[in-house]
Amino acid sequence: MTPGPIRRVLVANRGEIAVRIIRACRAEGLEAVVAVSDADVDSLAAQIADGVVAIGAPSPASSYLRVGQIVAGALLAGCDAVHPGYGFLSEQPALAEACAASGLVFVGPSADVIRRGGDKVAARECARSAGVPVGAGSDAAISVEHAAQVAGGVGFPVLLKAAAGGGGRGMVRVADAAELAERYPVASNEALAAFGDGRLYVERFVERARHVEVQLMADAHGQIVHIAHRDCSLQRRYQKVVEEAPASAVPPAMRERIADAAVAIGRELGYVSAGTVEFLVDLDHDEFSFLEVNTRVQVEHPVTEMVTGIDIVREQLRIAAGAPLSFGQGDVAVEGHAIEFRINAESPTLGFLPSPGRLTTWQPPEGPGIRVDTHAFEGYVVPPYYDSLLAKLIVHGVDRARAIERAAAALDQFEVAGVETNIEMHRQILGHRDFIANTVDTRWLERVFLPDFEPHFGRSAAPTPQGAH
Amino acid sequence: MRALSSDTEAIRRVIEAFEKSSWSEIDVRVGSVRVHLRAGDATTSGSVPATGQRDEAHARPEPVPASPDLNEPSNATAIAGVAADEILVRSPSPGIFWRSPQPGAPPFADVGQHVHSTSTLCIVEVMKLMNHVKAGVAGTVVAVFGRDGVAVDKDEPLFAIDTGGRAA
After folding, report:
1. Which of A389, A240, A299 has its CA nearest to residue A21?
2. Which pLDDT tens digit goes with each residue over B137-150?
3. Of A99, A134, A150, A308, which sits with the fewest C-beta atoms within 10 Å of its C-beta?
4. What is the DSSP string of A400-457?
5. Of A345, A355, A349, whose CA–CA distance to A450 is shortest?
6. How would you list the strands of the sheet with A389-397, edge to edge?
7. How many angstroms away from the CA of B83 is the closest CA of chain A?
8. pLDDT tens figures, B53-76
9. Considering CB atoms only, which of B14, B26, B131 is closest to A463?
10. What's the pTM?
11. Which residues of A are part of the catalytic machinery?
């Protein structure tokens, strides 16, 4: 990253995060130009941006995933910085590198940090040298024999994970040696196809774990702080569904150890910008282990903003311009509790079949303590080319119980027609005694909740999401 | 929305970035200014110098094409007159039609190919979910209506299969 004055930012993303970044640019007094595929020329981001660059056909491989299109688009539009958002090219060192080569500021860490943080094997090594516990397993399983040997050592079940994977993609749970032998070559080939890297590693599968992550913020002047924890244990197929801040199920003493571990990893990486360190927490055994580093802004960053008052995206822009952090560790205070619900265009009763189409009704809830981050509007046509996230409903309350109360009312107010959504599923999650008691784990949604929610769940001929098997 | 100034300086920076990159092609547009550059390749570009250097001939503002590829009809083959023994395989949902398991790979099924009822004919991708569309009947593929990478609607015909009377 080359810190320097920023005047005009290319937003190299779409959907709600593009809208979020444009607004943060405006708040910082910067112009925002959005890169759009042919499918997004009428998007909300395109409507509110100061300018638009057309970067190609709807398929991500023809537009949002092409480094050359992004960099050329930024230069043609006279931008001096590129904000990658999340997903797409946000964790590709090639984009950070290409930006630097063309004199563009990349709003994120350097290519080198992205590379070391993004490679799961390298990140494990980094965590270990920072003195942070990593899950029992291998650092790189180069063959099925080696994987079987490691798995035998740590005990089945294990997870086979793609070294270049992340965000829950490229993971396979195997129960025994026979399944490992069967799944290993398939998983390796899938990883090669999806990430261009067939390396796998083995990690012990924690049966009842909570997913806890720490938001880091670091500037180019050596200051690094942690901004509260998030609990993202509610997941389906390793994809987050509901996220909260703070991680109130984790005792304060352990939270402190986890935050220290995250900062140690951030320091070891030489981290700059906003980043997240993810951990698996085994509350039964009072243990936690490093999971992965995400070198970008997270989907669930708003829950942290709601409890700390810190604007993470604005802070990213300031850091990219070379400014020091606008606050120190002592200024970070957590107030109340926030919960985020990912509102997806999908049908939970049809095996979560995605549901693109025109929004004939779109009435998100409003009121104190309610925030909706979205790119949707009445009449918007949800395109079939991208993921199904329509909106993030974030609620804040003085404590978790009040936040749940407020969320229930907000979800009741949320009216959507024209596409299927998972709003009803969220309503029922909120009312579930395990969720209220805050005793869920990362497998709870699939193991406990969904079989009751949907009688045919698991037996339907539902299509398989890419990369999940 | 305010227009941006895409002056010659910006275009020059794009060309410069392209020249020192390994990108094979870029094609970006701001307002009425479009920059389309392709790496020198005698087989794909007629205006490439014989030295094989990068082709700058397109590096000028071009008018925006009136009808981008996206708007071309995806099922150009006439569907009228489907024979009695032919079954149309339709798209299960709106999505993107993919003929092969990954870019560059041979198609799942082509005209003249015999398929079983469980054979995958194509993928219809909807919001990152890959739906493998099965033939549903045994027979011979006689027509492919979808175009690779192009959007299809729910129930849009994708393939015609001649069942030889067996499924009639």
Report:
1. A299
2. 999 999 999 888 88
3. A134
4. HHHHHHHHHHHHHH-EEESS--SHHHHHHHHH-HHHHHT---TTHIIIIIHHHH-TTT
5. A349
6. A287-294, A273-282, A210-218, A224-236, A239-245, A337-344, A389-397, A370-374
7. 31
8. 344 434 444 433 333 333 333 333
9. B131
10. 0.82
11. 296
